[in-house]
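Exercise 7b. Backbone tokens:
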């Protein structure tokens, strides 16, 4: 039997995945998976179940009335989940919290398989998840909360691996005295961890135009996940990554980034180091090294992940230059944070 994976993204950043049959309506599939999406009539009359389809193909049929969903709304990607039958995997934004839909965070267990330090800047942490389906169920760019053993606290980290990988990975900043950093310095393969997620509204949307990706430090992690997804899809749009760090030693996984040029002919990247004493050929800030190949001359989408000052600096740069990305998705993070701010 053919089925499709439907990602339901709620207002509070929680994402739930449900399997929807080929001729099944999304509302019915959600209820079957104990997710109570907003609804009233379920007949295409009231419009209570209206959501936004952010990617995927589907059929809405013609059994609903214009008062519930106008033709203009349908052209803008709005759907009635009580009528929507998918014909591919889909991502749907639900205008309600997960709690209001009687669902919430998913928690799963994993085993540490490898911890690789990169200079004194970061760790790459690889995990095998007990339930492989849990490891595959996220959108490229999203994060999980990882419980730090014996601490009672969690820390938030973006997947650097792509959805569908048998093993998940994370790029974690080394923070002297930090809770997770201190644990990783002593941990070894075989340790057990508990993860909660996926979470976050910072994720790769359907690609329809060139992409500008801006990473600050370990904000590189979600872009590694996105680039792998784009490579697997053989994306033809122009993609440029600007990767900015504070010190030379903070530039990590450059070989992994460079390898995408073989799989994505339209991909290019620039590295930037802020330290004025650096010997790196490009010093300064990300905003001083934006692409000069015409990408910013037309319509483009921007994804930005970095510390709050970087996010604000980029927003000011766009305003001062009169640049208006068709869409601008960003995620702010701070060291030791247990939550993230995304838009």
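Sequence design result:
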């Amino acid at each position: 039997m053919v089925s499709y994976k439907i990602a339901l993204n709620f207002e509070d950043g929680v994402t739930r995945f449900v399997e929807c049959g080929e001729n099944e309506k999304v509302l019915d599939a959600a209820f079957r998976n104990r997710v109570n999406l907003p609804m009233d009539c379920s007949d295409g009359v009231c419009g209570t179940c209206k959501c936004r389809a952010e990617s995927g193909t589907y059929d809405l049929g013609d059994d609903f009335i214009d008062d519930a969903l106008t033709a203009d709304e349908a052209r803008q990607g709005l759907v009635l989940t009580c009528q929507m039958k998918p014909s591919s995997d889909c991502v749907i934004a639900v205008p309600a919290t997960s709690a209001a839909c009687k669902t919430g965070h998913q928690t799963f267990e994993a085993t540490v398989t490898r911890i690789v330090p990169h200079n004194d800047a970061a760790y790459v942490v690889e995990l095998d998840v007990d339930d492989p389906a849990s490891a595959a169920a996220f959108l490229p760019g999203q994060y999980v909360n990882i419980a730090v053993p014996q601490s009672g606290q969690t820390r938030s980290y973006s997947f650097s691996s792509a959805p569908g990988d048998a093993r998940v990975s994370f790029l974690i900043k080394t923070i002297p005295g930090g809770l997770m950093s201190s644990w990783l310095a002593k941990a070894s393969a075989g340790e057990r961890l508990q993860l909660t997620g996926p979470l976050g509204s910072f994720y790769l949307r359907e690609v329809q135009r060139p992409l500008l990706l801006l990473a600050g430090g370990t904000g590189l992690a979600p872009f590694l996940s996105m680039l792998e997804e784009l490579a697997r899809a053989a994306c033809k749009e122009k993609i440029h990554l600007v990767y900015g760090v504070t010190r030379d030693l903070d530039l990590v996984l450059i070989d992994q980034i460079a390898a995408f040029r073989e799989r994505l002919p339209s991909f290019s990247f620039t590295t930037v180091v802020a330290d004025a004493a650096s010997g790196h050929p490009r010093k300064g800030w990300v905003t001083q090294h934006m692409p000069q190949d015409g990408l910013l001359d037309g319509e483009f989408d921007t994804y930005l992940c970095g510390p709050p000052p970087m996010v604000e600096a980029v927003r000011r740069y766009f305003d001062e230059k009169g640049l208006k990305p068709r869409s601008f998705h960003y995620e702010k993070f701070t060291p030791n944070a247990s939550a993230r701010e995304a838009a």
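Instructor comment: The helical segments are 26-32, 71-75, 132-136, 179-186, 221-232, 254-263, 308-321. The chain has three domains: 3-93, 107-199, 211-342.
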